[in-house]
Specification:
The protein is mostly helical. Among the domains are: about 60 residues; about 35 residues, no CATH class. It has 5 helices and no strands. The protein is elongated and about 135 Å long. The relative contact order is 0.04.
Amino acid sequence: MAFIGPWEIALIIIVALIFFGPKKLPELAKSMGKAVREYRSATSTFEKLVEDPTKTVAKELTTKKPETSKTQVTHADVEDTLLNTAKKLGIDTKGKTPEQISDEIVSRYKTPTTSKPKPKTPTTSKPKPTKSTK
């Protein structure tokens, strides 16, 4: 295979500039770079699989981490939620610790402030049998 010399490279660049223009050339170079990079990674992966498939697959399985996204709840998030809940319930939070606020929320939950009387169910009473005197 013959090597491309500096004059040939210069000629290719000049033809590309004339053909595509100076604005389109950087985009073409970027897409060519991506294509070459993807080609190299695909061929290297294929070569690894051909060399020793069991070793490659085992290595890939052990290096991949499971995709579990655990969200961490911070202390600030808990306090914000607590304050928002207290405001929705109409609890005054000024000068109170988070423990006091949570205790008040719990006490309001256990004993509702407005209790509606239970509706009375109508009872049907049977007339009592009367004793007849003979």
